Amino acid sequence: MDLSNYVPSSSTSGPPVIWFSQATESLCARISLHQPTDRPAAPCVLSYLNEGGANFVFRIQPQACQDPSMQLHGRVPLLRIRKDLSHVQTGEEQLRSFNQHFKPLFPEQNLVEHEAVQLDDQAKNQGTATDAQENCPLAMISENAHDRQRAAGATTTDKRLRDYLIDDAQPLLRTLKENQQRFDSSGVLGNVDDNALYDICKAMSLRDCTLFLKHGQLGVEARLSDLDLKQPEKLDKWRAVEEALINEGWYQNREAEEVWKEEKVCLFSI
To answer: What class of enzyme is it (predicted)?
Structure first.
């Protein structure tokens, strides 16, 4: 979710180490990097929920069982598994980066915390993702209430979540925007020294995070997740994408005729 004014382009062996978001009292979990979960084995089905460039996210669906001690109760967790790609950090490294670089930036109640666990057996799963509705992230924090209403309506059909995004979510979203700008105020095309590159990696991570919303009897919970520190090796890719967006006219809605369509989403164009 990129809310900054500058809009950028956006093999292991053995059992995989994953992130395990254990929601017992809320969406928050106790961090346990070195200790395994104390939950007993329970029958469950994993269903595909989402994915990014580095991780898959699965929903855990408890299944009925005869032994009460093995039954999952309460709010069930999400399972986050790294992709087997050479540039993707291990689960431990992802969790360490989250705690060091991103956890201090936001209130605790607005972050999904994680627990690192190890699976006994590797498994494969197959799923299908759905297309998201188009909206401009900048509209979500616009001073104009109509812009926010339109962006929230393109994000969810749930009225309680729409109302939350329009009003109560604004402090969190503005904090996200401010940190995106703080870590990268000028983009990737200029001279980038080591210190600037380190900050750009943080900014890119903040632009690629996920906001989870959940409503219940006490209102709406909002927590940020997928805050994995981007790696400096991606700088050349970011530059190439940014140059292509500029040179091919995508920012000005002047792209090639065969792919052109009137811009109706970007806040700068309407």
So the answer is: transferase
Residue with tokens 């989250």: 98
Instruction: Look up the domain containing 22 and give its range.
Output: 17-118
DSSP 3-state assignment of 210?
Answer: strand
Assess whether 109 and 191 both reside in one domain.
no
Q: Which residue has the tokens 């972050």?
A: 111
Query: pLDDT tens per residue, the chain (270 residues)?
Result: 554 443 333 333 333 333 333 333 333 333 333 444 555 556 677 788 888 778 888 887 766 655 565 555 556 677 887 777 777 777 778 888 888 888 899 998 888 777 776 655 444 332 222 233 467 888 899 999 999 999 999 888 899 999 999 999 999 999 999 999 999 988 888 888 888 999 999 999 999 888 889 888 889 999 998 888 998 999 999 999 889 888 888 778 888 887 778 777 777 665
Contacts of 223 (CB under 8 A, 6+ apart): 27, 28, 109, 110, 111, 112, 211, 212
Q: Are residues 114 and 196 in the same domain?
A: no
User: Reduced to 3 states, what is the DSSP secondary structure of residue 207?
Assistant: helix
